[in-house]
Here is the input.
Amino acid sequence: MQMPALDDTIIAVSSGWQATPLGIVRLSGTAAFELLDRVGVSLPTADTRPNAGWYDATLSLTDDLNLPATVFWFHAPRSYTGQNVAEIHTVGSLPALRALSAHLIDAGARRALPGEFTARAYLNGRLSPDQVEGVLALINAQDQAAARQAARLSRQSYRPRVEKRTKRLTELIALVEAGIDFVDEEDIHFITPTELTQAIDQLVDEIDALGQTGRGLERPGQPHIALAGLPNAGKSTLFNALLGYERAIVTPVLGTTRDVLSAEIEVGGVAAVLQDCAGLGPSADELESAAHLAAERATDQADLVLWLHDRSTDWEARETEVCRRIPQDRRLLVLSKCDRPARSAKPPPSIAFAATAETSAVSGTGLSGLRRLLADHLETLGESSGSGMTTEHLGPALAALHRARDLASGTDDALALPEVVALELRRTWESLKALDHGRLVEDVLGNILSRFCIGK
Here is the structure.
């Protein structure tokens, strides 16, 4: 694929292609400011014009078409694309925006290719690759939480943290390979196995920490919240109350819900899937057994599990047993029917929950507090994904580091199999994919030459 030119001026309608109160047309390139003169916009002269600013103007396209506008300008290189950028904010009439774009194209601008503004930002060094991914994620965001996460990713790059580790890794490779090159020099000791093992242990901890911050990106789609508990704990009533309409059938008969009911809700700006699961417990027949299996699958796969316990009843051994199979950090306790007298509100000491809420879905008591609790936990799920690194990247790197550590555990006087240790360290470096492969040789040689006096 041939890369587009960078020395011309591109134009695009940056607002949606639908009638809106505000329409935006963006220009980027060397002639961005000069082209504004063709529509009657006279910016301050280059000598007096600040690096960025705005200007109220009237766009003169034809004798019959004049548009009110506010023009923003941004001087290179301190702009989104790293070039001179002008944004024209005017009325959101589609015919007017098309006429404005056509007028500027006739004056010398070129219609931008899809994604070309962001491509120019990347090629001009204004965005790193992971920030470009953040821009794409922001465009494709389906709810406020995804938009916030994408905005964080587009503003903050994990690359400096990875490059810091690769720099230290390069130093280790240089030390090991220098020892190989100067193995005949008895009085030269570049690094001992103990020092190498300690350095590798520190890298393992730091690289593993990168993966911990990136776990949230591995969760596909919307977060799932499962309502679980014994039959008649109030799951379906709470399900309907959180939705705001009756989706589940509610009766005093035990085991009314025979399958997992799902519906989309939004909590604290986060779009999620709420699931009403059948009551867990012993199965009386094949139908109930199938329902219980479906409920167990739903709770196993859910991001959060709301375990409902009717606080007017005592905790049962089977309830404790079933609840314990849910990881503690994903289970929240909801003491339902709080409008009734409590008998045993506290769970047994053998199980613990990440948080507890008391509700009455019938009267509405505690529902707002439960929503805030859910919003906090869903926000935490989103904020855990700031790295962009996944096990696909870090798994091979950590495996190679562990192999290098095992090989390095020789004596203090000699490093066992230094060539293989260096190979595993190089595999770690390549797995991180922070820099292009070709620079590794240059970096290692440069590190050796800068640290040691060779050839005297």
The two ends are 49 Å apart (CA to CA). Residues 72 and 378 are 37 Å apart (CA to CA). The mean pLDDT is 77. The chain has 14 helices and twelve strands.
